[in-house]
Amino acid sequence: MLKKQLIMEKALELFAEQGFEATSVQQITDHCGISKGAFYLSFKSKDELILTLIDHFMRQITSDIDYLVKNSPADQLLYQFYYTFHTYFHKHMNFARIFMKEQMQTLNQELIVKMHEYNKLHEKAILHMIERLYGDEVKQTKYDLIFCIKSFMKMYTELFLFENIQLDFALLSQTLVEKTNLLAEHMTLPFITEDYNLLIDHGKNLDITKEQLITIIDKNLSEMGDSLEKDSLLLLKQELTAPSLGLAITNGLIENIRHDPHCKWVAYLLRNYYQKQGK
């Protein structure tokens, strides 16, 4: 295991028990069995470690949701959306607990900005899903529906994070699909206007350049062992540098890397990059 990955995993255990503020770098290094010097070779500070953890987990779920919204059949989309979200946070319960607690308690401005950026990316994905599923039927209420869906995501997640209730995620997803469809069909009085779309667009800027993508890919490659995912990422880098592959092959290479936790974000960025290029 890479030292950076070890620090992230062990720090996450302490953060889940004690919270961000109560956990010191000394406690993290003791828990890892490493020196402070080794810690600072990987992270400049505890704040950088926290932001890296948030990026690591939020990029995975953001990428998965984006893929679902754009690729799942419409008749399965809403179920898969709820099921993927809730099972992901159940699987990564330690992270989910501290993430939700820190959103309510943090005074760290950089952390607030980071959380806000991912929130806006999720709202964009939810809006796209709503428009795919319901079209003009919810033209006046779709922004209210975003908040209803986000509330379902948050409140039902809290049941297993903080109440220790065992949930049937298949049944939960089915009931949330029913509730969402009822709201979409029967809501008639909008509260949030179309102006909210301007606020969603103030989220994280995804107008990434080819050069920035190559830099991100190089960083990923340096942290990966030999694998199909690494070979696919190398080919995707070559395609950015000297385009020669067709759409099907490029999409196939992106599909090869999207399940790797280290590559989910770059797969997400590549999908959005090629979509904007019209490929």
TrEMBL record:
It comes from Lederbergia galactosidilytica. Keywords: DNA-binding, Repressor. Gene3D superfamilies: Homeodomain-like, Tetracycline Repressor, domain 2. PROSITE patterns: HTH_TETR_2. This is Transcriptional regulator. It comes from the Bacteria. Residues 24-43 bind DNA. Signal peptide: none annotated. Residues 1-61 form the HTH tetR-type domain. InterPro entries: Homeodomain-like_sf, HTH-type_Tx_Regulator, HTH_TetR. GO terms for molecular function: DNA binding.
